[in-house]
Amino acid sequence: MERFAGQTVVVTGGSGGMGSSHVRGYHAEGANVVVAGRDDDAGRDLAAQLGDRALSVRLDVTSEDDWAALVRDVEGHFGPVTVLVNNAGVQNPAATVEHTELRVWKHTFDVNVTGQFLGIKAVAPSMRRGGGGTIVNIASTMAHTGTAFYAPYTASKWAVRGLTRTAALELGRDNIRVNSIHPGVVSTPLINEPTVAGRPAIADLYSPEPFAVPRVAEPSDVTRLLLFVTSRDASFATGSEFVLDGGLLLGPALQYESDVAA
Q: I want to staple 212 with a disulfide (CB 3.0 to 4.6 A). Which of 141, 194, 195, 253 is the partner?
């Protein structure tokens, strides 16, 4: 089944751990895919592997000029954008609020919030020209709770929730849906590799053992949900938040042991 045949999908951070999974997922379902990101070589390699229905575009998500150039390039190559996946994001090095540098705070917000804002701003007119579309902002379970030592990231993902809901209200009458996906702990370099040399990776601080589904997510888990949310099967969903965390936010799943003899 090719749910996205003839559609044009832009994925930011498209050559990364989750991004490349999303790109491959859309391509397998018939879409023209745009691998957008700062890593030119990785993006070109992925697009070359996929062939004619794939395009690599260099994009700094914090640059309004880069976004304008991306829309021009994509429309010239494939036509109007149908789906935008605002996937690009950064994590801050673990630190208390008192020890978080202002430059780290600003950079995290620039990429995680301003990058998504600029993406919506640039792509919405293209979707309108094409008769509509759908946008998904990748957020996090950290957007639903406080997380010690990650104030910039946590606050930025809370901001994504407000941006998503506002854009959904503004664009709904243009046949453009806007939703967010909130993954928990996903096995990607962002989680598995230290943000600062010599410090533990985020994965080292989490154990999935208490989760109701006791494992770490794979990028493909997020991709499958993303494909549903952006398909016609979810045509009545906008401004919605899809949490995908194996039960992390629910709290520990305690193992019941009966004291009654069998």
A: 253
CA 102 to CA 99: how far, in whole Å?
Answer: 9
Amino acid at 239: G
Rg (CA), the chain: 19
**Which domains occur in the chain, in start order?**
8-245 (3.40.50.720)
> Mean pLDDT over residues 202-216, rounded?
79
Cα–Cα distance measured from residue 187 to residue 244, given in angstroms and rounded to the nearest whole number = 13
Torsions phi, psi for 180 (to 5 deg)? -130, 150
Residue 34's alpha-carbon distances to 37, 71, 171, 220, in angstroms, are 10, 10, 22, 18
Residue 254 DSSP symbol: P
Which alpha helices (H) appear in 102-233, and where do they start and end? Answer: 102-109, 115-129, 151-171, 189-192, 219-229
pTM of the model: 0.91
What pLDDT is attached to residue 191? Answer: 65
* Residue 151 contacts residue 101 (beta carbons within 8 Å): no
* 153 labelled catalytic: yes
Tell me: the pLDDT tens digits for 145-165? 999 999 999 999 999 999 999
Looking at the DSSP bridge assignments, the partners of residue 92 are none
* Chain centre to alpha carbon of residue 258: 42
Residue 165 to residues 82, 136, 159, 168, Cα–Cα distance (Å): 19, 11, 10, 5
Q: Give all strands of the β-sheet with 32-37 in edge-to-edge order.
A: 54-58, 32-37, 8-12, 83-86, 133-138, 176-183, 241-244
Has residue 207 got a pLDDT over 80?
A: no
**What is the mean predicted confidence (pLDDT) over 178-205?**
76
